[in-house]
Amino acid sequence: MTNKPVTNKNAATGSAATRRNFFLKAGTALSLPVAAGGASSLRPVDSVEDVQSLRRLQQALAREINNATGRAAALFTTRELPAGLDNVTRLLPADFGEHDAIEIAADGRTSHVTLRCTVETKTPIRAQGTLIEMARAQGEGFVGATSCRTLDMVCVREAGSWKIKALATRDS
């Protein structure tokens, strides 16, 4: 048995398929809708840097919330956390980004980001009493919950970087 490299030859042309050919053809196919210049209000294919920056912003928000650093407010244009994040203790991405959507406006200054995530919350028990006070003294006295949510963010570009202008969560 010999070790011959496996090649896929096109029967019509006799040429071997290579990764370079694949990327050339795929790049051409993907650029056709851009060249057509549809009547969309969104930029058809935005720069990879903007998409990566928006993903890094979402990851930074999750990291700041998960580590409880207190610096998450710096990611917002108002420099304050929205009320919807008051009791959130963990923010975890879901579905490996399969259902995430990033839409960047034609002006390149605003975007709408939709991300599916798992949200863990701890809500203080409102009841009063000796047992509740003892639990609070020991770091307890909370009701924890985990739910699958969709995180909707409106982001704006400020001084060359993306910031979160509005954030809302809804059931997935």
Overall description:
The chain is of the alpha+beta class. The protein has one domain: Nuclear Transport Factor 2, Chain: A (Roll), CATH 3.10.450. 27% of the residues lie in helices and 31% in strands. It is built from three helices and five strands, in the order ααβββαββ. Strands 1, 2, 3, 4 and 5 form a five-stranded antiparallel β-sheet that branches. A hairpin with a 2-residue loop joins strand 4 and strand 5. About 11% of the residues have low confidence.
Q: Tell me about the largest β-sheet.
A: 5 strands, antiparallel
Classify the secondary structure makeup into a structural class: alpha+beta
CATH class identity: Alpha Beta
**What is the number of helices?**
3
Q: Beta fraction of the residues? A: 25-35%
Write out key terms for the chains shown.
31% strand; 27% helix; 3 helices; five-stranded antiparallel sheet; alpha+beta; Nuclear Transport Factor 2, Chain: A; 172 residues
